[in-house]
Amino acid sequence: MSSLVYAINIATLALWLGLAGLDGVAWLLPIWHVPAKSSRAGETAALLSVPEISLGAPEASATVSDPVREPADIPPPDALPKPPQIPQIADFPPLPEVPEVSVPATPSISTDPSKSAATPTQRSVKVAVQASENASGDARAAARAARMAAGKMPPPVYPAQARSKGQSGSVLIEFTVGTDGRVLSAYAKDPSRWPLLDNEALDTVRRWTFPPGSVMKLQRQIDFKLK
């Protein structure tokens, strides 16, 4: 029974397929015989039927021969204001002439000592100044001598090593004395050939003392002689 139903269904399906194929063939046959129409025919007819547009006749007032009218607000050249005139510069009177001033000649000064003679008053003043300077110098020298004579200046000790080697000589010492009478500084201005003698002379002078007074600079020669 089932095989019979199956066979019926197959037959029905085949029938429907056949009918559908015939229907498609019948629909395609009329298309093959229809003549082709041009799609541009309607457009050509439409283009030919466009009406002409009339612009109309030009107005008679807008002709080329009409002159151009000037604006009414521009005044003529004669009506423009004239520029102001520049006043002329007044003539000034000439300046007065400057008078020439004569410069007096400068007297020449002679620098030759032979031609310039000093007056008696000037000579007397110079002599008096020189005499006072000599007197003050003599007074200072006398004060130095008196101060040096009043000082305590013990003699140096002969170095034993220098004596054993037979070294002898003289040393010139320059030293400065302060206001308190003590020796501020000393150095060998004219040393000997032996350093032992120079050092002993410097140590001796540094121990000297003098009476108080002004600062003075003195020189003293110390001799080392073998007996």
Residue-averaged pLDDT:
74
The CATH class of the domain at 168-227 is Alpha Beta
Amount of helix: 25-40%
How many helices? The count is 5
Notes on the protein architecture:
The model is unreliable at 44-48 and 60-64 (pLDDT under 50). Helices cover 38% and strands 11% of the residues. The chain contains five helices and three strands. The chain is elongated. The protein has a domain at 168-227: 2-Layer Sandwich (TolA/TonB C-terminal domain), CATH 3.30.2420.10. By secondary structure, the chain is α+β, with helices and mostly antiparallel strands. It has a three-stranded antiparallel beta sheet with strand order 2-1-3, with helices on one face.
The gist of it:
With 227 residues, the chain is α+β, with helices and mostly antiparallel strands. It is built from 5 helices and 3 strands, in the order ααααββαβ.
Q: How do the strands and helices of this protein lay out in sequence?
A:
Elements: H1 2-32, H2 41-48, H3 120-149, H4 160-164, E1 169-177, E2 183-190, H5 195-206, E3 216-224
Antiparallel strand pairs: 1-2, 1-3
